[in-house]
Amino acid sequence: MPNWSLRTRFLLFALACLIPLAAVVGYYLDRSRDRSIAQIVTYETTLSSQTSRSLSSFLDANADAMQRLATLETVVGLSPEESGNALGEARRFRQELSGIFLVDTELNVISSSGGFDPETILPYITTQLNPTLSQGVVTVSQRIPLDADVNVIVLMVPVTTVTTTETETSPDTTSGEPVDDTLPSTDTAETEPEGEQATQPPGRTIGAIGAVIPIEQLAQWAMPNSRGQSEIAIASAGQVVMATSGINPAEADLVSAQAEHIQLAIDGEVEDFRFTSPAGVDQVAVAAPVAYENAPWAVLVTQPAPSIMQGLSTPEVIFVFALAVIVIIAMAVVLGEITAQPLRTLASQAQALHQGRLRGPIKPRGSGEIRSLGIHFAEMAGQINSQVAVLEEAGHDRERQAAQMRELLRRTNRMQEDERRRIAGEIHDAVTPLITGALYQTRALQMTNGSTPEEDQESALKSVNELLERATDELHGVIFDLRPPDLDDLGVVAAIQAYVQTIQRTGLSCSLEIIGDQPNLTPEVRLSIYRIVQEALHNVVRHAGADEAVVRLETSRDILRVTIRDNGAGFDPDLAVRPTSLGLLSMEERAESIGASLTIVSKPGGGTAIIIERVNSGDVMSDEVLESMMLISNGWNDPDHESTPADMPTSNATETR
What we know:
Strands 1, 2, 3, 4, 5 and 6 form a six-stranded antiparallel sheet that branches. The chain contains 18 helices and 16 strands. A hairpin with a 5-residue loop joins strand 4 and strand 5 (151-160). The protein has three domains: 42-304, Beta-Lactamase (2-Layer Sandwich), CATH 3.30.450; 369-455; 491-647, Histidine kinase-like ATPase, C-terminal domain (Heat Shock Protein 90). By secondary structure, the chain is an alpha+beta fold.
């Protein structure tokens, strides 16, 4: 069996199940959906053509009737009474119209017929009347809302003056049809009333007739009775003129969203397209122009796109999915059992390891990730056993460290008591006798009551002064040993310099080297560095047998380094660092408390270097420090080697004994 990973096997399994199912289902769905959409587009194209012809036929018929009405002498004469009778007679024959009205070029209503007020319509058709009155063309208005339930459109036909000659020889240029020969003559000498109308020139537009058509009446004539799921809208460039029940004519969303397609249809193109309705439904639509040239409208037919399962019968869908489920379950059971068996074994071994019952090595089983898991589990079991041993050893180390800390605390307390005893002894042995002597001499002078000669008084006072000065010096020495005043007043450099001078009085040649500016340290850091230097030089005096010692203090932007070097006997640091080495332990504790490192570089006969380094960033041990430490170890053991300040180690660590 190939060493496939678990992920690869499950991926192949999923592909094996899904490829045939996806191929079959995808083929059927794709073919079915394409056929359904093509059928819908064909049906919508036919429906839009039918709607366009019906609408154009209706508008043509009413435009022809209004144009014939506009040629009557009673209408051309603009007589309110006579034209009103003509309008009423025309409306009796055109019952699909809800009203007819006549206006002059000044938009004054001459007469009207129907249950409406023309004055309410005129504000909506002012723009429409301009081409009718100025160019003599037939126009169709936008949808006009008379009230909440009634919407209309207005068909405007120009009224022009004509002569008998023109009537007999010239066609009506506005309607495109010959003038009816049976109409009475419109000779101005015989028919026009006196006044301005009697002087009107032939062929001039003198007014317009408006036919008010209800949208409901227009829809009855234009909309097909059978349309299935299709919704139909008659739209202009910025408005839905009328629509079926599934489209709200008052909403402009459809027009604004499909403005490009509507405009192309108005321009004479027929196209099909897809869009998503405001309700989130995928729609198939066809936009076609309205055949009536005087109405810049488009027919928009839309229908929901077929669903993904459309075109497949229910038994086919059930059979395909049932077969896929059976195959998937069978393959999942087999593959799951093959995969789970080594995992169950591994789980039982993990439980045994948890309970401490695991005996012998773990043998990996299976392949791929499962086998890799078994290998790692075996390694983990070995590491756990090793870590248990390490933890036990660490526990013993912690116990030893705790014992060392207890011993250090005990010895520290003892040393504190010894230091107190020493200070008390120094004050008692050195300071108290001096003060007592001065006190006795002052009392003796006091008892003479001024009878002592002047020379003796001066001698006695000089002796008292000397005693007090010696007592003061002794007290200063005690105070300096407790805590140098320079440490807080002048800084760590001045305090170390004062202590170096004290060490020089013991006969040891000791010097202080300063590299860089004096560091700006906190009181805790100053005190810890001073105590470490004090302890290191104290060890040099007591144990090293050296005749020279150097203290170097280096300061840079990131590092403070203090090095104490001597040319004494040296020692083995590994053997010197033991629980009873209180000096070394105290120096290490002080260095650790201020975040510094401490390193001891020494060997028997080669001198000793104690390096303290406190860093703010970067590595705590530089290459230069290591090189200096190697020079100490290799060069100071050479009897001919001469100790110079350049040989001082520059390590990042602090060494103490």
